[in-house]
Design goal:
Strand content: 5-15%
Number of strands: 2
Order of helices and strands: HEHEHHH
Helix content: 40-55%
Largest sheet: 2 strands, parallel
């Protein structure tokens, strides 16, 4: 299941999980805020959610998020290149390991944001985004 895949990915990577539940008046559409870790587990989680999300159609709106941090002014240039968009110290992924490329994860987050938002954030944009997610490697 999607929950089991998320739990396994998070346990293996020792990621922190934050879940927010809000109970209120019934809505015609559920909103799913996904804070993604920015590694291969993100693609696996999204792919596992895709079939169910596509079945829900208009009833589900997905809002993926990526964590962005600023690096210190004394951060080595190699780390800025590896973990920051355009080596800008204000637009960096958290350093989870020196072997990873946080900049690539953030660039992917921007790409997905564009697919969702440039289509007006409507359900057509959501269905295109899910098709894109299903084509991700991993």
């Amino acid at each position: 299941s999607a929950a089991a895949a998320l739990a396994t990915a998070l346990i293996n990577n020792e990621e922190e999980v934050v879940v927010e539940l809000e109970w209120g008046l019934p809505r015609s559409r559920a909103v799913l805020d996904l804070w993604l870790p920015g590694n291969s587990a993100s693609a696996q989680l999204l792919k596992s959610l895709a079939p169910t999300a596509k079945q829900l159609g208009d009833s589900l709106r997905v809002r993926p998020h990526a964590r962005v941090v600023a690096m210190d002014s004394n951060t080595p240039v190699a780390s800025l290149w590896r973990h920051c968009i355009s080596s800008l110290p204000q637009l960096c992924a958290p350093i989870l390991s020196e072997s990873g490329r946080g900049a690539l994860a953030l660039e992917e987050a921007v790409r997905q944001h564009c697919i969702l938002r440039l289509r007006g954030g409507d359900m057509h944009g959501q269905s295109q985004w899910w098709r894109y997610v299903e084509s991700l490697p991993g």
